[in-house]
User: What shape does this take?
Amino acid sequence: MPDRDRTAPAVHGDWHPGLSIRRRLTLLLLAGAAALSIILWLLVRDVANEAAQDTQDGILGAATRAVADEMRGGTDGVEVDIPFMAFSILGAVGEERVFYRIDVSGETVTGYGDLPLPPAPATLGPRFLSATYRGEPVRVAVIDRTLLADGRSVDVRVALAQGSRSRDALAGGLSNRAGAVGIGFFLLAAAMAVLTARSVTRPVRNLARAVARRGPGDLRPVDRPVPSELVPLVDALNGFIARLESSANRTETFIAEAAHHIRTPLSALRGRAEIALRGATPETRDHLRAILRLTDATARTAGQLLDHAAVVYRSDQAGQAPVDLARLAEEVVRTARPLAELRDIQVTLHHEGWDRAIVRGDRVPLEAALRNLIDNAVKYSPEESEVVIDLTGTQPVVLAVCDRGRGLSAPAADLMPRFARGDNVTDVIGSGLGLSIVEAAATAMGGRLTLMQRPEGGTCATLTLPAA
Assistant: This one.
């Protein structure tokens, strides 16, 4: 027994003999499942409260707006007619008490004069306030209007309040369901944690023997403390790594030496074959050309074997291929025309010299750049106008998209960053990413994007790319 203690692996010293990886894994998974269940319940509870509040606010705001829309100004003052439809709308939330208040020029003309009101910021939509009124929680919605009565402007304020008990009951029901789902999730996760822990620890010794027979992988030895169950795996893995590293070193040395010794005679063989080809008879030229081809293939193979472990291809060379910009522009224009025709906008493509409009790059970002340029031109052009696309296939390749739209409201440099938009297009839906996408694609291909204001109105976006 003392001899066995002296020969025991040192990694045992940091672990208690009774500490099991299965117990650790089970407790860890149970703790994670409990944390996820609690987080799930909290998230669903918050979402349920927000959803119930938003639903009540939407209905309460619609009812308040219906009352405000029925108010009229005349020569005798402001006419107040509370429609029954407003209270019918509020009935969709639940059977709750409803309070209302209507103020004209700061004075309450009907309803509950002590009904609390939210602050009055400058807004056209309804404002909301949660308060307690006459012993129960209520939600208050207020809309301000300005009416013309007796030749002067009159400020009118409409307030509707509804009890919040139905909303709280709905949110509580959803929270209870979320709690039940969380408990079910925890119980299922607990069962899976126990089964997973047992499944992981049972095949450890078989896994250690399998790892010792694997192919090349991570060559770093395992030197951290491990539980008692993993000692055989660590021993087998360290032995496997040592053998694999030694084998890899020998193989790399052999390839380097073989390539070095093969490359020199191949170079000499190619030189002699080229000399012989100049003075060879027609019958032997084919044989010499075949020898040259085989020599080149062998030299390339040796070079690849030598450089296999050291050469890393640059990432910016991936996906670089010749792209016919004229044909790509035709495809993008063809897909853009149906949308442009809905607004009677004519999209015209001129590609003089298209047979030389070949650029080198990735087709996908280049297609996205063209699509964004044409989409911007169509989107900001007036109806019954024309978008002209001119492509010049010289060196460099220049593609210009010109429209009769609103033009530039800021310097071009201020419109290039992400999410940047001009002040004159705030009424048009957009993300402000189109020009940044085009600029990024042009920069990646060694080109540039320029924007110019047209003297006769509109904008010209010019994409300049180096020819292949």
